[in-house]
Specification:
By secondary structure, the protein is α+β, with helices and mostly antiparallel strands. It has helices spanning 21-25, 46-65, 71-92, 99-102, 108-122, 129-152, 163-168, 177-211, 258-287, 302-322, 357-370, 375-378, and strands at 10-12, 15-16, 28-29, 33-34, 36-37, 217-221, 229-234, 239-241, 252-256, 292-293, 296-297, 333-338, 347-354. The protein folds into two domains: 1-30 and 219-256 and 326-368, no CATH class; 45-216 and 260-322, no CATH class. Strands 3, 4, 7, 8, 12 and 13 form a six-stranded mixed β-sheet that branches. The longest helix is centred in the middle third of the chain and has 35 residues, at 177-211.
Length: 386
Amino acid sequence: MTCRFTSSFTIDKDVTFGHFEDSFKQSTRCSDTYLRPDPGGMMMPWIYVLISLICHLPSVIIRVVKWDPAQHMALGLAAFNIAIIIQSYASTKMAPDQILGWMPLTAIQEVSAMLQIVVLILEEPGHNAKVLAKALGNAFIQFPGLLYKRLFDRDGTFHINNQQGAMLRFRTNPVDARVARQALVALTASTFGLTLFVLQLYGLTHAVSGRKQPDLVMKWCSPAFRDFTLAVVTGTCQKFTIVSGGNNGFDCIELPAEQQYLWLTGTIVLLSCTIVAQAADLVLLLLTRTERFRGAKMRRPWLTMFGGVIILVILICYGVFTSRQLPAGITKTIWVYRKAPHDALGLVCEVHLWRPGFRGMILGLSDAVFSDWGDVYYGARGKSEL
């Protein structure tokens, strides 16, 4: 360490560098350990994003070539994405310093899929909103009678002396099962698409307001900061005072939230582009003819389909890069200053830090998204034991 502190240099309240001079001369080395952020300081691990990309690529390919088999896959992915986004919003309270835990950038693929489902069903011959609504209404009206016949009337007829059966036998127009199914799919897709769009707007609003907040900091915690640690000095002679940690079970230091500011800006830009692309795809779906090009139908939300893939690739590349880097403001080698309240002299030791790796990324994201589950997530012994 080349930092030349005077004996009166303040390490902490009522503690100066003079309390550590004797220990500093001995060049004590402590165990190497990791540094990971408090909940909300980690984005989705890149391997999770890669799995999401692998799940979405078949859907994109099927949607380009043949749409019908991809409908149920798209609805399932949309339902899962809605659940994750709502859970992350609720758990992080959409705090700007936890943007990496709640940014809704992956919703673009599902919005485009829901849009495509609704438009293509409405564009089928003889289909319009009125026809689909009528078919769905008739199906719901006749459902009790059909269910009764299935359960209690195996021969498919109602008995005259069965008063309950007579009451449940509705005389309505026959239901086209295919049209009714398509109407139900269109209704579900519309609900999912609108929900995702509202969640996108909600996230964009909070990202804009969060970007305006000055001096955001992020807590980074390490096992090296326990045992009466008062302060940490980096290789660039910058001192950080120890603060209490969150869910990690040990204390932390506060570093400038440069990565959070970056992704607040990135969320604003990408979500704005996403919303514009979704609007453009809606217009293209309504105006484009159903002509084919090399076997693929042209009426597809091309901008959002491939824009969503590009966003996933960006998240993967960024995740791989940051998983190998320590945060800005800290160095690989630090000096930890420890002093118990009743000790006359303190201990200073050298510590080498490394990134938390894939495990730390999983813990950082999981703690942010599921922390409001309490004992269900942390277990009966509580978060301080982890």
